[in-house]
Amino acid sequence: MTVPTSTNDGLLSFVSTRSLERKQVSFAGLPLPTSITKHKSPISLGGGRPHSGFFPVNKITLEVSSSPFNADTTEKVISKKDSKTLDITKGFQYGPTEGHPELISFAKSLINRVNEPGYEDWDLTLTNGTGDSLHKIFNLIINPGDVILIENYTYVPVISNIINYGGIVVPVELNFEKGGIDVGKFEKLLENWESGPYKHFKRPKGLYTIPTGQNPSGLTQSHEDRKKIYDLSSEYEFLIIEDDPYGYIQLSEYFDGDFNKFSTNDYSVDKYIEEDLPNSYIQYDTEGRVLRLESFSKIFAPGSRLGFIVGHAKFIKRIIDHANVSTRAPSGISQLIVNSVIEQFDGVDGWLNWNIQISEEYTARKNLLIKTLKSSESFKKGQFDIIEPKSGMFLSININFPNDDDDEEEDYRDQVEQLRYKALEQGVIVVLGKNFTTDESFAKKARFIRTTIATQDSDEEILEAGRRLSSAIKLYFESV
Ligand SMILES: Cc1ncc(COP(=O)(O)O)c(C=O)c1O
């Protein structure tokens, strides 16, 4: 099979005037005239890069965990000078804006192994995490008045990000039964844009989506629907901004509470890739219209402040130009530590194996919470439904309020707030779905609460949280 090469010069029509007009200014000097032959080994009296002897660290020893929550470790020594890899001398120094070659090379191998784009001229740049990636992408594409579609409940900082650049957000509905964006409604919205509720706005320039383990709903879009959404992006000429911080955390389906496919002996990295990891939109992409965002926050550590953007080389170049005049390269010290741990795991497959182990732990936690909730009196009385996630760290609960007669006009905001108070009185913190939208009509309809299985210290804490939450729901129902 030949991989198509994108020839779509129209991609530049998605670029904002701000980005098109950005100029790079450098004090490094003009390129040498051909008549000048440069000395083979010049001594620098030029750039202000401190000699590594000024760095106060000579050696770093990492105790790398063999698996999550496991005290067993292996030792990785990071030396000051090691020409074979990213060492202290390079990691502590100013580095390339797009990131150190060692980590870039890892990220490219990971993409090739798991989510290979459908065209050749793609590229990748490291960033200071997805928050930074999003800021740079909206800087790249938004001119005032441009429309970005977002899921009706979403990671809300994105909304401010879009609005700050003069963009307009238009919500598209999630389908809580099927998982992900409701493709039927989405297609109708695009088909009838000029006669629909947003006819006074331009047609959308982009779709921002969290297709896997969505925040806040925990939903995951099916492969079939992803392909349809990609086809719609091609038909209606918009970009897809795929935010995927949770995608590597896969959850095996709940059966009796104990089954965990990641613990089975014949589970492997190949199975993880072929059977479990959802396809990225970038795999369907033959035109360079997908920007894929990955983050090390949930699978390494949020404090790493590291992520990367994969997309068409034309977009990536402009994002790097922006970084040159804003954040510059992500922390070299952070890159050094992340890269060394990945080396200790033995590269891409070892890293994926770490992600499988994370998935195993999250699955156990999810099963425990579901088992506790299902055994509660409140659940048995039908007071709530569990929206079982296939990926990620969020599990949503839909409250079947006593007055719920599927009235489209019903406003649940006060009721969910009262329920939250009951939960706090019972000793459990949850987040309300209504807080993940700025659209009043969707805030009114939000009957769900978001819980996470990421933070608890022990199984006992998860069990207790489930008991407290279900008793809060029961007490709420008794109080109304
Ligand atoms: C959907 C989504 N995108 C991005 C982020 C932030 O990621 P990062 O830590 O890489 O900036 C989060 C964090 O919670 C998130 O839920």
UniProtKB/TrEMBL annotation:
Q: Which residues form the Aminotransferase class I/classII large domain?
A: 59-459
User: Which Gene Ontology molecular function entries are recorded, alphabetically?
Assistant: 2-aminoadipate transaminase activity; aromatic-amino-acid transaminase activity; pyridoxal phosphate binding
**InterPro entries under this entry?**
Aminotransferase_I/II_large, Class-I_PLP-dep_aminotransf, PyrdxlP-dep_Trfase, PyrdxlP-dep_Trfase_major
Protein keywords: Aminotransferase, Pyridoxal phosphate, Transferase
The UniProt record lists the EC number as 2.6.1.57
A Pfam entry, by short name: Aminotran_1_2
Do you know which CDD domains this protein is assigned to? Answer: AAT_like
Q: What class of enzyme is it?
A: transferase
UniProt KW ATP-binding keyword = no
Which coenzyme or cofactor does it need?
Answer: pyridoxal 5'-phosphate
Check the record and name the Gene3D superfamilies matching this protein. Answer: Type I PLP-dependent aspartate aminotransferase-like (Major domain)
| GO biological-process terms attached to the record | aromatic amino acid family catabolic process; lysine biosynthetic process via aminoadipic acid; tyrosine biosynthetic process
Q: Would you identify the family this protein belongs to, as annotated?
A: Belongs to the class-I pyridoxal-phosphate-dependent aminotransferase family.
Q: What is this protein called?
A: Aromatic amino acid aminotransferase
